[in-house]
Design brief:
Blueprint (H helix, E strand, L loop, with lengths): L2 H7 L9 H10 L3 E6 L8 H15 L3 E6 L21 H19 L5 E4 L1 H4 L4 H8 L5 H6 L1 H4 L8 H4 L1 H16 L1 E7 L3 H15 L5 E5 L12 E2 L2 E2 L9 H9 L3 H11 L4 H13 L5 H32 L7 H8 L12 E2 H7 L6 H9 L3 E3 L2 E2 L6 E2 L9 E6 L6 E6 L6 E4 L4
Parallel strand pairs: 1-2, 1-4, 2-3, 4-5
Antiparallel strand pairs: 6-7, 8-11, 9-10, 9-12, 12-13, 13-14
Length: 430
Amino acid sequence: MNIIDELKWRGAVNQQTDEEGLYKLVGEKSISLYCGIDPTGDSMHIGHLIPFMIMKRFQLAGHHPVILIGGGTGSIGDPSGRKSERVLQSMEQVQHNAECLKEQMKNLFGEDGFRMVNNYDWLSKISLLDFLRDYGKLFNINTMLAKDIVASRLDTGISFTEFSYQILQSIDFKMLYDNYDVQLQIGGADQWGNITNGVELLRKTEGVSDAYGLTIPLMLKADGTKFGKTAGGAVWLDPKKTSPYEFYQFWFNQDDRDVVKYLKYFTFLSMEEIEDLEKEVAEHPEHRNAQRKLAEEVTRFVHGDEGLAQAEKVTQALFSGNIQELTGDEIEGAFRNTKGGEVAKAPINIVEALVEAGVEKSKRQAREDVTNGAIRVNGEQVKDTEAEISAHPNTNGKFIIIKKGKNRNRKRKAVKSKTISQLFSVGAFK
């Protein structure tokens, strides 16, 4: 199957500069292609996975990905998808972020079969006069103003710095075409204007007709909201920001209406495997087999077998209530980005803790639930209303883990003791 046919089946193609030409090209030979990312932070989030999953598919099909870290463009700021100017980062911060992103890319693409470059290496060497004479002269202001990335900012204003971003990205395509035989640029739907500018620059400067651009559709959830946004904020690829357990749960909790789309997009499962899972969703949605498979595949891709094993271990422990063996890091990773409360001290009477932390609304209800065996603390059932409870032994005195309920309506909370800041609560589990 031509890689373009596969991408279309997976719903991953939005616009192409020359659909027929690109289809023919990738059907005849292995090509080099690139996608860029600016180091605006020290970690990618799942939104960044969208174009890089496409790059990975090209790699698996025998093509040669080039990952561009925007050390140069990242220092001035991409106006795409923004309503206001970016706050410029120091060059030291940009460099630090770039190094962090490089390590994450190695996790996704391996050590071989792809190339990584930084556009700071060539953009920093272009003088102001050379920029204006060699490149600025080739860009028409009227055309630049008509690009969506600029037009959307005309009412609120855009600096010359961000206005010039599209020229710099065009230079990137030219440099990669000239030095690494890169013929295809991939990006999100908001990058269409930047990509077409690059194709046009190659045509004007070198008469190139075999450079192409492809964009990916904006991904929306079934409810119309933007994919990847959660109540807790971004879902990061860095396990220190989003634990493997949290990452796994994000995918496991996807809506039935979205899960097949995400299986096509974010996994490397075959058409037959995905069609079988689609049938499962239609016939037995309560089993959540499609969501489980999605969570397994994406977690393994980002965090490896070890990260997946940790996520499944924590998930099972929280589901069963047997959390005694969880490490402090696993506990904190499970509850870090969820809402919580606090208690003033520990050890603390169980009834007082339940009310103070907001697990129960009244002492009467707290005593009733304790007596009835509905409360577990740090994995152990507590039925004595006079019991004193303390932090989980593996959390260095930081968290008391409380589970309320005997049935499906479970409520789990981690109560932080002593230097209290918040009470963590956990949502749905496998």
